[in-house]
Amino acid sequence: MKKNLIITILALISIASLIFGYIQKQKAEEQEALATELSEAKRKLESQIELEQQTRKEISEKAQQELLKMRKEAELAQKNK
């Protein structure tokens, strides 16, 4: 009788352990999928930020060139007066 009880208890513990392991595996897979999704979103955002920074840099450079051109034209206009 004691043997059967011990075997039953050990079987229940084994089943509980397997269930717990399966649940942990599912949680880990969900977290991994979420981490992958977040990593992809981060990469896209970083790419967009880099593109935006490059665009702003180009606009700034063009504005500076235009400003220099306008200053030179103003200086020439002053000299021609």
Account of the protein in words:
- The chain has 81 residues and is an all-alpha fold.
- The chain contains one helix and no strands.
- It has one helix at residues 2-80.
- The protein is rod-shaped.
- The model has no long low-confidence stretch (mean pLDDT 95).
* SSE ordering: H
β-strand number: 0
Strand content: under 5%
Determine the N-to-C terminus distance. Answer: 119 Å
Rg, rounded, reads 35 Å
Shape: rod-shaped
Report the helical percentage.
over 70%
Count of DSSP H/I helices: 1
In short:
This protein is mainly α.
Helices and strands in order:
Blueprint: H1 2-80
Keywords:
single chain, 81 residues, mainly alpha, 1 helix, 0% strand, rod-shaped
